[in-house]
From TrEMBL:
Organism of provenance: Pseudodesulfovibrio alkaliphilus
This protein's name: Tetratricopeptide repeat protein
Pfam families: TPR_19
Compositionally biased spans, kind Pro residues: 140-152
Residue numbers spanned by region Disordered: 140-174
């Protein structure tokens, strides 16, 4: 755990604007260092104020530590974000099973009050849960479509030469294609790059536990990739620039660790 924390801290020292601060904060929490997690979250949120999940974790930690005087400002930033997306609340309510219809109505009551279209409990009493549910929630969402089972065939085997293009194009990087590096790429939004490494690791792994862990991670990222915009759209030059910077950061980080090992 400490080595992973050190790795993330090294990345942040090279790229202070990286969103990996959230992953580092969660590691601090898992390691029993909530104060360090709070410091990390506040620094990261100064650069990424719209990172909702990071701010919610900060609210959680401040509350657990009894620092409630600091919670108000963070809460306002969270609720203001949730207030702007009423479709999120309706989608959540519609996704619930029929036996949780009461919860669905409650979610719509929260949404209505956040957006200013106030519904009072007296309205619930006089109108009734069932009628109110039909009016506020509407029909449930259709069930998710069946997806074909994911393929765990390593991309390098499916696409000859792909591994050489990815690893050999940058001398010295092959030995650093580890799970930690894949985790870093995934946390930075490079899902395809992370998948490539996970598949290679799955192909070379001999431990059943390790293979199960990697297979689960591959399934998760393949689902995320399936929800991404369709290929064929014009390449985002800003995304390419960010990816190049990440690769450069990883190379520098790898060189640092190699120098330490040899010293």
């Amino acid at each position: 755990m400490n080595k992973k924390i050190e790795w993330y801290q090294e990345v942040l020292s090279l790229e202070p604007g990286s969103r990996i601060f959230f992953a580092l904060a969660k590691l601090f929490v898992e390691n029993g260092n909530p104060e360090d997690a709070i410091i990390t979250l506040k620094r990261g949120l100064d650069r990424h104020p719209d990172y909702l999940e990071a701010r919610m974790l900060l609210v959680e930690l401040l509350t657990e530590l009894g620092r409630e005087e600091e919670v108000h400002d963070q809460l306002e930033r969270v609720t203001s974000s949730l207030r702007d997306y009423p479709a999120f609340w309706r989608g959540w309510a519609r996704s619930l099973p029929p036996e949780q219809r009461d919860l669905a109505v409650f979610l719509m009551l929260v949404s209505s009050n956040l957006t200013g279209d106030t519904i009072k409990w007296t309205d619930v009493v006089f109108e009734g849960i069932s009628t109110l549910a039909d009016r506020l929630v509407g029909a449930p969402l259709p069930p998710p479509s069946d997806c074909p089972p994911p393929s765990y065939l390593p991309r390098a085997a499916a696409e000859p030469g792909r591994r050489d293009r990815g690893a050999s194009a940058r001398p010295g990087m092959g030995s650093f294609r580890t799970k930690t590096m894949a985790d870093l790429l995934a946390s930075q939004g490079d899902t395809a790059g992370a998948l490539e490494i996970y598949r290679e690791l799955l192909h070379s792994s001999v431990s059943d536990d390790r293979r199960s862990e990697l297979a689960a991670r591959i399934t998760e990222l393949e689902a995320r990739l399936a929800e991404a915009p369709e290929p064929g759209r014009r390449e985002d030059v800003f995304g390419v620039h960010a990816k190049n910077r990440l690769i450069s950061t990883l190379e520098t980080l790898a060189a640092r660790f190699e120098a330490r090992a040899q010293s």
